[in-house]
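Hi W.,

Here's what went into the run:
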Amino acid sequence: MKFVVSSTEILGHIQAISRVISNKNTLPILDNFLFELKNGELIATASDLETTLITTIPLDASEGEGVIALPAKILTDTLKEFPEQPLTFEVDPQTLAVKLSTENGKFSIPGQNGDDYPKNPEKEQDNIVNITVASEVLLKGVNKTLFATADDELRPVMNGIFIELNNNDLTFVASDAHKLVRYKRLDGRSEVESSFILPKKPASLLRNILPKEVNPVLVEFDDKNAFFTLSNYKLICRLVEGKYPSYGSVIPMNNPFKLTIDRVELYNTLKRVSVFSNPASNLIKFELSNNELVVSAQDIDFSISAREKLMCQYEGEALEIGFKSVFLLEILQNISSANVVVALSDPTRAGLFLPYDNDNADEDVLMLLMPMMINV
Amino acid sequence: MDAFFASVEQKDNPELKGKAVAVGGGGDRGVVAAASYEARKFGVRSAMASKSALKRCPHLIFVNPRHSRYKEISDQIMAIFHEFTDLVEPLSIDEAFLDVSHNKMGLPSATAIAEEIKRRVKEETGLTASAGISVNKFLAKIASDYQKPDGLFVIKPKMVESFIEKLSIEKFFGVGKVTAEKMHQIGIFHGKDLKKRSLLELTRLFGKNGAYYYNIVRGIDHREVDPHRIRKSVSTENTFLDDIRNKEELKIRLEELVLDLYRRLQRTKFKGRTINLKIKYSNFEQITRSRTVLHEITDYKEIVELSNNILDQLELTDSIRLLGVGVSNQIKPNEVVQLTFDF
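Here's what came out:
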């Protein structure tokens, strides 16, 4: 088994898949990349048992076929340091030692038997659902929702993005029970109605490999796993098991008071004022009346306070409502329009945050945030 | 009460009278819970390792603690307090604040009440107590510590200023070892030094405690005697017979502790948002780690999972002699809380 590959080409691919490797592996072999040479192609795999990322690396030349596992850290650390040049990998089938020949040198790396590497999960052919999604749609769905996922060991379903497909649209939902994001795409329909919960880790891996993808992505899933097929990558991940809460019931239907405001201006104000909020609560107060928004915060313990007045468009009764500044900032950061619309009803109910205009006629973005309240 | 646990033991067992007694485990791993005045002369203090206590006082007699007995006497004392006023705020098993602005016995002065209480305590329990009398909690507490044992000290309103000015900073109720050290470094040794600092300066140096120090050094303490003082935390801990290194074994011990904690939570009806894990290594180095969630933790399973989770993330640097677990951070009235979706 022997192959010749461009140093930057192989580095780019293995760096992308190395993000899968966990630093707390239970199986030592998972500290390796699995390389498989077959039909003149090199397929590299990294896995943590739950998530597996596979890439196909174009070769300059190859000889023979076979599999070998090579230590990920040594390989990436060395390859990083090479200027662009062809590298020759040669595997000794007896000792499994790998000789790496470069322009000026020879490096030797002990390999491990590739057959010991865990096998990828199989698709359950009888109940597999598949859908082809534009890479831009998938990327945006993940990007808009990932920040709102929870970190809750006790409710694992909340730790992922709920992806729902049906005849009309493709919907991405994430919530940590305080904030909720629903990102809908009317141009991502599916014939079957189905859903799955994508865990955070594969979601953030997708966020890394999708931007370069130009072709539509094939998404297949069964009860246990999802399989994403891109031009150069294949991502397999175990899904979060369980039922996602019926999020629709928490979306307020009637929030009559409407605030329209410059998003960046509000964001910058919040950044300044939140420094003065109590670090335990991060409470920021909104006082709304007559096209004016007063944003204030205070920390009595340290006798500090801040208050800024912003011009806005406000239709509704005078209202005072409190929010956690960190959540507000995250939401404003994940809305892209110049102006944001906030629909409110009373200080105990969720506020609805909507972009003033969408980037795209086929999208529908909705963000929800529960307020903070004085305990009685 | 004066040297409470030790005095109870000396009273119940006359052979111990007049001798250096320490309540607590006397073995290699024991700790002194209380020391009699005879033992204190040799420098034996509570919370000291029994081994070092024996070094200071080789003839020290160790007695195993009998908590139910102390509780019994504590109840007796508290009952006596309640005969004088309803405004009794227990500070620990053997001390309490009493607001005697109105007293049930119609006694003419606070001093008369204190004398009467001390007499009754002596008569009914055979033990001596020390009383401190003043215009607020801060001063009363300092007064009670001023003349131990069997003391009675009054800080009268007109004495307050000069008394606090002369008081050394480590005697201030609410100033611990670390704060005292910090104050020494910036030249604060007595009340009068503290009084020279502005509120702004103290807030800068001590954060939210700054305002407290600013006020108490002026004799200002408006905290009321609260008979229903809110409990701040519930916890339980255990010192192992042998140090434990193995995490799996620790987890078994942790689960036993959590079960005990859960019973305590149910009994006290306490609810909090933070789980605390306390670990003392065999070299006596102590660490605490906590996890806070946004809701009140009431579920047994959740306590197990959260505390296990803290343990999982800990890298143990040594074997462990003591493990403790507790719940704190109650949602207080008027506190701001983040609301949650109902799903």
